[in-house]
Design a protein that fits this description.
The protein is mostly beta strands. It has two helices and 31 strands. It folds into three domains: 60-217, no CATH class; 274-438, no CATH class; 445-477. The chain has helices at residues 420-426, 449-477, and strands at residues 10-13, 20-23, 30-32, 38-43, 46-52, 68-71, 74-86, 89-98, 103-109, 112-119, 136-139, 142-161, 170-178, 188-192, 199-206, 227-230, 237-240, 247-249, 256-258, 269-270, 285-288, 291-304, 312-321, 325-332, 335-341, 347-348, 354-357, 360-379, 388-396, 399-405, 410-418. This is DUF4178 domain-containing protein.
Length: 501
């Protein structure tokens, strides 16, 4: 792979320690000295020290400065990195220098990656508070859904950068996503209020495998074998195997541990009780839809509809594939499903009773409050017990679509229903297939159409006889109301789409 053509090189000694500081891009105005972490700004041919940058927290990313790749037929090199913190965790943006001398950004997005380029504002950008999460807006003639409006702060930086927000100062970042449309039309639009006027960028989701990357950490003999530390509750060793892990549970005491600030940071933790045993053991590998997936996380959630005082439960397995990223295997009372976070957002139709996504119309099935009640394993976001979101599920045949909304973010996931037999076979648990059966496999489903009418007639007759008996009992007892409500719990079908961070 050819390296990006040099547009301009500039090298000067660091004003603090004298070590060489190099600028490869003519658009880069700031750099962080690799030796003393001094933050320097380029003013003509002079470097001026403006402060000292905090140390990078170890996110164990496979990416590193100098790694190169290719996108849209053009090569690029990673020359800088910004690390941000927001209420739910941290994320990293890599400054990519393209072969034509322009700058772009490679950032992590819900366990995947987004490659974006700066765009010019066509008109004055509204204030951040004007963007309401879950609402729609128009920019440049394109309709977008507002999917995130959160407060962030720069916590560290590395290499050369075209911009550098003040360290530690908070500012808003708004994320918009295209609505409806096919997969090729799905875009991510970001508004960064860390400078005035705000900076705009537009991009799309990418897989690292499609970028033809070279110079990654594991290629230089530094392949990660996992991060080990002592549980802050019981002291037992805890091993985080995934590079992107932000939350993990102790295998001994089931304490939920926050790793969003890195292992070197303060390890916040919460003791968990009332364990729920997953059917699929964490670490197991199953083959679904032509790919091998490892179960790395498990969470149990409780849902409650606005018009019901009873709750229902379901489970979600976080699955990981090195080339495809993350997806969710959802175990609900009405069946199994496999879903993945989406890049674009659906377009809401009249009265919100249906949405259109990738040219398919989905009908609304359930709306409910969801709360995380128990967690096991590793997660790429900062999951916590007691987290509450508002979820809405939609369906189109066996296709499923779900939204999960908090105060600052709304995420969408899409997928399909899956038979219990398929799930059991995928994880080589066919001998326990009866444990995987759900309400989607009722005995009536196996009845032929010729016998179905007979079954219905028998059921109706039985109900009529029961009603007559109840009536007779009421008459003999002098009255009294009969309640036809079952003593069982709520129907768990509200969770069939799954909702995910």
């Amino acid at each position: 792979m050819s390296e990006p053509a040099a547009q301009r090189f500039y090298r000067a000694p660091c004003p603090a320690c004298g070590a060489p500081v190099e600028f490869k891009s003519a658009q880069s105005t700031h750099a962080v000295c690799a030796y003393c972490q001094s933050t320097v700004v380029r003013e003509g041919d002079v470097l001026k020290r403006i402060g000292k940058m905090a140390e990078l927290f170890d996110d164990h990313s496979l990416l590193q400065l100098g790694a190169s790749g290719q996108i849209d037929g053009q090569s690029f090199t990673l020359v800088g990195r910004l690390q941000y913190k927001y209420p739910e965790g941290t994320w990293t943006e890599w400054h990519a220098l393209l072969a034509d001398g322009s700058s772009a950004w490679l950032s992590e997005d819900n366990g995947a990656y987004v490659f974006s380029r700066p765009v010019a504002a066509q008109r004055e950008v509204p204030a951040a508070e004007r963007f309401v999460v879950g609402a729609s807006t128009a920019l440049g003639g394109q309709r977008y859904a507002v999917t995130s409006n959160t407060t962030v702060a720069l916590i560290s930086a590395q290499g050369e950068l075209p911009r550098l927000p003040p360290l530690g100062e908070t500012f808003a970042v708004v994320e918009l996503r295209t609505q409806g449309g096919g997969a090729a039309a799905q875009r991510v639009f970001s508004v960064d209020y860390g400078s005035a006027p705000p900076l705009l960028s537009e991009g799309r989701a990418v897989a690292l495998a499609d970028l033809n990357l070279s110079g990654l950490k594991h290629e230089s003999g530094k392949e990660s074998k996992g991060r080990q530390f002592a549980c802050p509750n019981c002291g037992s060793p805890v091993l985080a195997k995934l590079d992107s892990t932000k939350s993990i549970t102790c295998p001994q005491c089931n304490t939920l541990i926050d790793l969003s600030a890195g292992i070197g940071g303060e390890l916040r933790h919460a003791v968990q009780d009332e364990p729920v045993r997953p059917l699929i053991a964490l670490g197991s590998v199953g083959r679904l839809e032509g790919a091998s997936w490892q179960a790395v996380g498990f969470q149990h959630r409780l849902g409650q509809s606005p018009d019901d005082d009873e709750s229902f439960g379901w489970s979600e397995y976080l699955l990981y594939n090195a080339n495809k990223g993350f997806c969710f295997l959802v175990d609900a009372e009405d069946g199994w499903s496999l879903v993945k976070p989406t890049t674009g957002a659906p377009e809401r139709n009249l009265l919100g009773q249906s949405v259109t996504y990738q040219n398919v119309v989905y009908q609304k099935t359930w709306a409910y409050r969801a709360e995380t009640s128990y967690v096991l394993g590793e997660f790429y976001w900062q999951v916590q017990r007691g987290q509450v979101t508002q979820n809405t599920d939609y369906a189109a045949g066996d296709r499923l679509l779900s939204s999960e909304q908090s105060a600052s973010e709304i995420t969408w996931s899409a997928g399909r229903k899956m038979s219990a037999q398929t799930v059991a076979d995928a994880f080589k648990l066919a001998d326990k297939k009866d444990l995987f059966k759900r309400a989607d496999a009722q005995p009536l489903s196996a009845v032929g159409s010729a016998n179905l009418l007979k079954v219905v007639i028998v059921v109706v007759i039985v109900l009529l006889v029961m009603m007559l008996i109840v009536k007779c009992v009421e008459d003999s007892a002098g009255g009294g109301a009969y309640s036809g409500r079952s003593a069982g719990g709520s129907y768990g079908g509200a969770s069939s789409g799954g909702g995910h961070k």
